[in-house]
Design goal:
By secondary structure, the chain is α+β, with helices and mostly antiparallel strands. The protein is built from 4 helices and 13 strands. Zinc ion binds next to loops.
Amino acid sequence: MIPPQASLHTGRLILTPEDPLQAADEATIVPALKALGLLGPARPVADGQAFSAGNALGEVIGFTGCAVQFAAPHQGAESAGPWIRIPSTARQPRLLFGRNTRPPRCPACAAPLRDWRGQLPPSAPMEAQPPGCDATLPLQCGTCGAGAPAYRWRWGRHAGAGCSLVSVEEVFPGEAAPLPALLTALAGLGAGPWGYFFVQD
Ligand SMILES: [Zn+2]
């Protein structure tokens, strides 16, 4: 019997350097995001660091949907509403994907790879250290035969790879996007410009 409380994961917005091989240390990321007002009180997590959303959340991330519930100011750190997780920086890029992920496109011929899940191990949960799976594992194109590391395939905004990750939790895919203030701050961390994608467990 399915427990009455069981529900599907809403989703998360994940920011990472556009070049998956570039990395910024979490000791660099956290102070920058605190200065921006994105991070509120710390929350306990097994790996890396996590924070309730700070006061400037709505100024640095644009929300278009109605699925996000903002915490009332009087509520505590564990209240409902978006929160931010910063996993420990990985030495090699990790590929993060979920039930929302669509077949990636080949870096050589752009054909979609429908059996990509069969070529990769399962994605470790966001709580794991490290999360996702090794993004340097090869995927072989069924159309042109080319093989390339998973991080070189085009995943759109339905999956992505990186060493440094900033995850905004409980965000429905497509209903949030970083605003220029956040992208500018991230681009100043020494890992080049950052992009974003969405994952639903
Ligand atoms: Zn191909």
